[in-house]
Amino acid sequence: MRERGDLRSEADLDELSMALLTALQGGSLRSQTLRTAEPLRASMNAALAYVRSFAD
Questions:
Q1: CA-to-CA distance for 34 and 48, rounded, in angstroms?
Q2: Beta bridge partners of 7
Q3: Cα 33 to Cα 11: distance, rounded to the nearest angstrom
Q4: What is d(CA 13, CA 45) in angstroms, rounded to the nearest whole number?
Q5: What whole-number distance in Å separates Cα of residue 37 and Cα of residue 15?
Q6: Are 53 and 36 contacting, i.e. CB atoms less than 8 angstroms apart?
Q7: What is the pTM of this model?
Q8: How large is the average pLDDT for residues 4-29?
Q9: What DSSP letter does each residue of 3-28 carry, written as one string?
């Protein structure tokens, strides 16, 4: 995404990918435990907003 110009050059791709993966795993676990999709939806919305904050 950075090579295409979608992300600013200072975006740390390793950190962004870790944040997305962590949000997915944590949200998934909470959703399974609570038997509702809301935790997964909320965690992914937050993670994607974080990635968007680096948009060029």
A1: 22
A2: 55
A3: 33
A4: 18
A5: 25
A6: no
A7: 0.85
A8: 95
A9: TTTSB-TT--HHHHHHHHHHHHHHHH
